[in-house]
Structures are given as C-alpha cells and as structure tokens.
Amino acid sequence: MSLLDVDMVSHWYPTTAGDRPVLDKVSLSLDHDDVLAVVGESGCGKTTLGRLVIGEETPTHGQVRFEDRDVRSFKGKDFRAYRRAVQVVHQDPYASLNPGLTIEDALGPALLHHRLARRATVRDELVRILREVGLDATQAFLRRYPHQLSGGQRQRVAIARAMSLRPQLVVADEPTSMLDVSMRLAILDLLLSFQRERQLAYLFISHDFGVVRYFSQAGRILVMFYGVLVEEGPAEQVIQDPRHPYTYRLLQAIPVPDPALARRRQREPAEESVDSALPPVGCVFQNRCPFVEARCRASQPPLAEVSGGHRTACFFPERVPDIDHLLGVH
Ligand SMILES: Nc1ncnc2c1ncn2[C@@H]1O[C@H](COP(=O)(O)OP(=O)(O)OP(=O)(O)O)[C@@H](O)[C@H]1O
C-alpha cells in the first residue's frame, strides 16, 4: 500500500471571469520513504498540489488518498491524525510561525496535545529538537520571538516544528527560496538527513531545477507545465535524458559556472513562441515548443513510457536533443 496517492486530480479556482483550471488530471504516488520533487515555473499549480495533499483544499475532481483512504473521509480524530502525519515546510517560515508567539509557545502545545512530551519535560524536549535541526538552543532561546532570529534560524525552527510531530510525509514548498544562497544547501542537507534517519517521505516543490536536482538525487522528479504533468521518472533519468522539450528548457536554465558551456547553450534553438496563454485544445506546451506539429495542435499527448518508470507527455520525445553537453556531462 502506498503512503500517498493523488489520483486523476483536477482543480479549479473560482474567479470573477469564471472557473480557472489550475491542475488537470494529475496522478502521483509516494511510498513511505520516497522523495518526489515537483518542478515547474511559477503559477503552474505546484503549491495548489501541495495544498490538496495537506488537506487545505479539496480537489474539484479526482481523489487524494493517504494510506489508501480518501482524505475527504477523514473526520474528527482521523483528520487530526492525518494533519499530524502530513506536515508542511513553507517558503516563508512566518507562514508556520506566529510572530506573536515565542518559540516555546509555537512548538510546545502541539507536542503536549499529541502526547509527544510531558508538561514537566517539554522544555528539555524542545531544546533537544531544536539542536537536532542545528540550532545552538538553550532554554533562553525558547523565549525568543521569530523576529529575533535570522532567516536561516527561522526556517530551522519551522522545520523543527514540522519534524517534532514525527510526520510520515512532509510537503516542502520552496523551502529554501527565501534564504541566502549560502544557507540553501545546509537546509536541503538538513531535510535530507531527516529522510535518511526516519522513514519519511517528501513531496518537494520548487521552480528551481538546480535545487530539485540536489534534493532528489535518489528520488523521482515530476515536471509540471500549466497544471499538466508533462514528464516524470527517476531523478537521474529525467536530468540526464529529458524526453519533454519543457524539461529540456528548464535544465537549460540551470546556471553553469563554465563560460564555454554557457555559450554553447546560447546557440541552442530558440523557442518558437513565448505565448504563455493556454491553448484551448492540443498539447499544453505547443505555443512554446520548437518541435510542434499539426498532431500536437489537435490533442494533448498522454504520458507514455520511454524507459523503466520514465514517462513523457510528448508525441516526439526522440526530437528532444541530448542533454549531456548542456550539463557538462561527458
Ligand atoms: N485561492 C486561489 N484563488 C484563485 N486563483 C488561485 C488561488 N491560488 C492560486 N491561484 C492561481 O492558480 C495558479 C497556480 O497557483 P499555484 O500557487 O498553485 O502555483 P505555483 O506553481 O505554486 O506558483 P508559485 O510558485 O508562484 O506559488 C496561479 O495562476 C495562481 O494565481
């Protein structure tokens, strides 16, 4: 039994101009210690997917199942257990830390509520958890407010809050995008260390393929374009051998330190058009695709297998150029 199944989920937001489709028949599955990274540009529906998984939104169509049970069916005790088992680490730590509460008041009550600590020892337990996320915490540290911490410290506290509840799944939504570059790797390594030490699954969300590449080394990558899953597979296969032109574009955008490599990239064929409006019929990527044909304008290609567990939603995957020269792989 998988831990999480997202089954043919479509989602619309109501707007004054009518319902706006944000996700279109997205399916994915996560096992108990899987890392699944979702990558795509801003606005493609990544955060919405995360909100559906943590139960903050209900899908317009399709099902989100946790341990084979429809999340919509969770009520009362079951719903609370689900909200404990699935934690979220946001881009902005202030989204999970109330600025008016000290660290002790932000983290302590949940531990007591879920009987993960006793009143007499809760402070010691909090200090232990904060040290586990790399903070040099003392009991005095517990009396600090979020604004008295640096950005990196705040994100560590937010991670401590999520991990203190011993979750089975963590949705990490752009967890490093507000941090200095120098801090990013440390936070990614911290998240990965929890995954190694506990049986923990991650749904990791980012627009930055460089970050996704680092985080998902042993996991899977799912590439989304305007609410449609266009490619998925084992991380190394998607990175070394992308078979969707959009994935190729995203990989092309990863900065490289080698100037010769950077120049070679600039000689790559340009996108046919940068029209970002969603086409009413046909492939979701057709207006940006250099390989588009009449067939692509007629229908959306289904996800089809290219090799073991690696799938792409492109009619012409063989036209996507080899990536080796872009990544400097020889
Ligand atoms: N509550 C809402 N009501 C209406 N539209 C929304 C709502 N939330 C998000 N959207 C719209 O849905 C689309 C997808 O948003 P979402 O935040 O899921 O994408 P994203 O890929 O996470 O982008 P970003 O990285 O910018 O957050 C966007 O166009 C956004 O404006």
From TrEMBL:
Entries under CDD domains matching the protein: ABC_NikE_OppD_transporters (cd03257)
Keyword Oxidoreductase applies: no
Alphabetized UniProt keyword annotations: ATP-binding, Nucleotide-binding, Transport
Any single GO BP term: peptide transport
Pfam families hit by this protein: ABC_tran, oligo_HPY
Gene Ontology MF terms: ATP binding; ATP hydrolysis activity
Residues in ABC transporter domain copies: 1-251
Keyword Nucleotide-binding attached: yes
InterPro entries: AAA+_ATPase, ABC_transp_ATP-bind, ABC_transporter-like_ATP-bd, ABC_transporter-like_CS, Oligopep_ABC_C, P-loop_NTPase
Protein name as catalogued: Oligopeptide/dipeptide ABC transporter ATP-binding protein
Species: Actinopolymorpha rutila
